[in-house]
Amino acid sequence: MPSFSTPSWMAAIYDSDNGSGTSEDLFWKLDALQTFIRDLHWPEDEFAKHLESRIQLMSSNMIENCVKRTKMAFESKLTKSSKSTDFRISPTLCTMFNVMVDAKDQSAKLCAMEMGQEKQYHTQIDELIEESVKDMIQFLVAKFAAILDGVLAKISRYDEGTLFSSFLSFTVKAASKYVDVPKPGMDVADGYVTFVRHSQDMLRDKVNEEVYIERLFDQWYTATMNLLGTWLTERMDQQLHVYQLKILIRITKKKYRDFRLQGVLDSTLNSKMYDTVRNRLTLEEATASVREGGMQGISMKDSDEEDEDDD
């Protein structure tokens, strides 16, 4: 039996470092090649079957390579991107999710075999795609969690008993005798809310597979709510600074509302961790209202309802 080497145009696709840029071309050419082979109508049945089998196995290898390279490119791009609230989901990242959708559809068409090792091989491709999507979602959720962790690190400077907090309190009290001292604004919270909404809108608009979006948003909400809960638990024995409290209330309320609007189920939204966060912030708010004389309109009240100032 003759052997078949990979054509030069396919080698170029193998060498590509970003599957999203060449996947459509790859799938089209593989389909065209298989159609060409079938249209030859080889008179020897055994050779025709062997040729078709080799082409389909080659297609499997090419699609598998495309999937692996796409996942690697996705992870690399995330690793190099900003870890602050300036991070924005790029169309390229969304396209890489769509490559996985296309790869799954095309593998069913281009690698379909009826029996034996080939069928098992096709099943392995489906499993590879599923695991790759799972990993990509985890990469993205980890990025989102790291960004929130950065926000929490900023407000941690206001922890009770820290040098920064003590110095700030002393400076404000001393200066307030002579001038009106401006209080920390809500820029940190607003920047985070803007980042979340932009990311949600971009993913919703650009990723073609609803199942992937549902999984991503569910894990995103859960991971970041757990992060908030852990941060608060670590400060169980200390009073929150009023600035910390305002930031956390704003973030928690907007997060709950925005993810609900994106279709995250109530069973996920109203988790035990959310209840823990909400109860702690509500208690801190009551204490701060007495101690600080009010929260300037920022409150956990009706945190599961739409805020009038969201638009």
Helix and strand topology:
Elements lengths: L7 H8 L3 H21 L5 H36 L10 H20 L5 H41 L6 H13 L11 H20 L3 H24 L8 H20 L4 H4 L2 H21 L19
GO biological process, one term: dense core granule exocytosis
Subcellular location: Endomembrane system; Synapse
Pfam family, one: MUN
Order of helices and strands: HHHHHHHHHHH
Low-confidence stretches: 1-20, 163-168, 172-182, 303-308
Radius of gyration: 27 Å
Helix content class:
over 70%
Beta-strand residue fraction: under 5%
Q: How many structural domains? A: 2
Mean pLDDT across all residues, rounded?
A: 81
For the sheet with most strands, the description reads: none
Helical stretch tally: 11
> What form results from the Cα inertia axes?
elongated
* Count of extended strands: 0
Give the structural class: mainly alpha
- The termini sit apart by 68 Å
Region (Disordered): 292-311
Protein name: MHD1 domain-containing protein
Pfam family, one: MUN
Domain MHD1: 1-70
How would you characterize this protein structure?
Its main location: membrane. It is found in: Endomembrane system; Synapse. The protein has 311 residues and is mainly alpha-helical. It folds into two domains: 129 residues, Topoisomerase I, Chain A, domain 4; 136 residues, no CATH class. 73% of the residues lie in helices and 0% in strands. The chain has eleven helices and no strands.
